[in-house]
Automatic annotation (TrEMBL), chain A:
Cofactor: FMN
Record-linked SUPFAM superfamilies: 2Fe-2S ferredoxin-like (SSF54292), Ferredoxin reductase-like, C-terminal NADP-linked domain (SSF52343), Riboflavin synthase domain-like (SSF63380)
UniProt-listed PROSITE patterns: 2FE2S_FER_1, 2FE2S_FER_2, FAD_FR
Molecular functions per Gene Ontology: 2 iron, 2 sulfur cluster binding; metal ion binding; methyltransferase activity; oxidoreductase activity
Protein name: Vanillate O-demethylase oxidoreductase
UniProt organism field: Roseovarius nubinhibens (strain ATCC BAA-591 / DSM 15170 / ISM)
Entries under Pfam families matching the protein: DmmA-like_N, Fer2
Ranges for domain FAD-binding FR-type: 1-106
Keywords linked to the UniProt accession: 2Fe-2S, Flavoprotein, FMN, Iron, Iron-sulfur, Metal-binding, Methyltransferase, Oxidoreductase, Transferase
Length: 315, 200
């Protein structure tokens, strides 16, 4: 994964829970440009554990003067967002990967419908800048619990095609109404909680939408769980994966070379063959097919865990 | 006429399956000639498919019209050719939404032209179903002059635009709605293989 050391130049609260961070090259060199919906992975050396979290870029895709992300503090999470909120200040140097996009706009679309729930607004903030440049027809539907918690508000102009759905104000999002009557060539993009993505898929299915016109992104953080042992088939070594560690992090801690990109179960880079499995793999990813999951011959080490007697993988 | 079984070919060669009802979703149904029989079969399996349907028929010398009209689609229209339908079909696509399904039945040429127009209008190809009925004549694009020759039944054939002798490939362009014809004697002019009838 190509990465560079960048300096944090701005740390600004957007809401009580969400903070914006800006990264620039320490020598002022321009950074690679990206496309709307791209993310970077930020490395955090947190008390001996090297955490790597993926964050959507919220700055303009055609602006190489810096990268900006918005991080929501998750107090019950594994610690990455807490680290960003408590340890990172202007001047901090951090390793940031080059942008990767798993949630790009489909350029064949004639109209784009963007549906955001909560912090899921982040990838759309860069997409909106791209849509403005392309002068492409779009509508944005942004659902949040309250205005105070809606981190995206500061970036959204008041426009007739930008719709806010604030549940505290009784203005809930009606997915059926949003998806009804959309013209041919419309593509729908959803980012937010798993429940929102499922609801959009169900509403679209009821209205006969072809699946190819639906796109979504949900970055998962690796869920904690019971510790488990894994045998590395190539060397015969056995590692223990801790309760707050992912299998990918355990492999990295043991200096096993393994490719990765999103670290959230979406991109497929870290897919690993399972050579023996006596027990059950908890597939937490969005990558493997239902058949692959049932066969238990592949695992996504970034988010998936194991329960049972014996697991061996081809690493 | 029963359905034709096409021989296995490369991935880009279109394949056709019997039409499957998507229920009473808004639908455009377009059939040509004996393609009408595919629509009659579809309606016999699930009459609800016509509930919100715009049914368009090109008789092409057949007499299925009265039976199609009797199916009771929301709208029924007959036209002498696909070209004569351009304005009606274009308007139906312009008014369609992402819930609209397209059912096509007839020759490969009709299916190809109607599919290309629907894709150009923004209909996702997953919303398009096609069942082949009738002739296996092909719609061929000459890759050299880009002219399209309709109703090609022999291989090789003569391009009706530039006169080159073209080899009939299975390589199909979804965008153009045509198979690709390539000069058969480009390397050794005049060395043309014997003409044979196209097989399915």
């Amino acid at each position: 994964m190509s990465a560079r050391l960048l300096r944090v130049t701005e740390v600004a609260p957007l809401t009580p829970l969400v903070t914006r961070f800006r990264f620039e090259d320490p020598d002022g060199a321009p950074l690679p440009l990206f496309s709307g919906g791209a993310h970077v992975v930020v490395e955090m050396p947190d008390e001996g554990v090297l955490r790597r979290n993926a964050y959507s870029l919220i700055s303009a895709p055609d602006d190489g003067s810096g990268y900006e992300i918005a991080v929501r503090r998750e107090d019950t999470g594994r610690g990455g967002s807490r680290y960003m909120h408590s340890q990172v200040t202007p001047g901090t140097l951090m390793t940031v990967t080059s942008p990767v996009n798993l949630f790009s706009l489909d350029l064949r679309a004639r109209k784009h419908v963007l549906i955001a729930g909560g912090i899921g607004i982040t990838p759309f903030l860069s997409q909106l800048r791209q849509l403005a440049r392309m002068q492409a027809p779009f509508e944005l539907h942004y659902a949040a619990r309250s205005r105070a918690e809606a981190a995206g508000l500061a970036f959204l102009p008041s426009a007739p095609n930008i719709h806010l759905h604030i549940s505290d104000e009784g203005n809930r999002m009606d997915l059926g109404a949003i998806l009804t009557g959309q013209p041919l060539g419309t593509h729908v993009y959803t980012c937010g909680p798993e429940g929102l993505i499922t609801s959009v898929e169900q509403a679209a299915a009821r209205l006969n939408w072809p699946k190819a016109a639906l796109h979504s992104e949900a970055f998962l953080s690796p869920p904690p769980g019971k510790p488990f042992d894994v045998t590395l088939a190539r060397s015969g070594r056995t590692l223990t994966v801790g309760p707050n560690q992912s299998l990918l992090e355990a492999l990295e801690a043991a200096e096993i070379d393994i490719p990765w990109s999103c670290r959230g179960g979406a991109c497929g880079q870290c897919e690993t063959a399972v050579t023996a499995c006596h027990g059950r793999i908890d597939h937490n990813d969005h990558w493997l097919s239902d058949d692959d999951r049932a066969a238990q011959q592949k695992i996504m080490p970034c988010v998936s865990r194991f329960q049972g007697q014996h697991l061996a993988i081809d690493r | 006429m029963t359905q034709v079984t096409f021989s296995p070919s490369i991935k880009t060669r279109p394949v056709y399956a019997p039409l499957q009802s998507q229920g009473d979703a808004p639908a455009i149904l377009l059939c040509e000639g004996d393609g009408a029989l595919a629509i009659l079969d579809l309606a016999a399996r699930d009459a609800s498919v016509l509930g919100r349907a715009h049914l368009i028929h090109i008789p092409a010398g057949t007499a299925h019209g009265p039976r199609l009209r009797a199916l009771g689609a929301r709208m029924y229209h007959e036209a002498p050719s696909f070209e004569a339908l351009a304005a009606r079909y274009g308007k139906a696509l312009a008014d369609a939404t992402m819930s609209t399904r397209l059912y096509l039945a007839g020759t490969e040429g009709l299916i190809a032209k109607a599919t290309a127009a629907a894709l150009a209008a923004g209909l996702p190809h997953q919303a398009i179903q096609a069942e082949h009925r009738g002739s296996i004549a092909r719609r061929m694009q000459c890759v050299h002059c880009k002219g399209v020759t309709e109703e090609v039944t022999t291989d090789p054939f003569t391009c009706s635009h530039c006169g080159l002798t073209l080899f009939v490939r299975d390589h199909f362009s979804r965008r153009l709605g045509a198979f690709q014809g390539v000069c058969v004697d480009a390397e050794t002019p005049g060395d043309v293989p014997a003409t044979q009838e196209i097989r399915p």
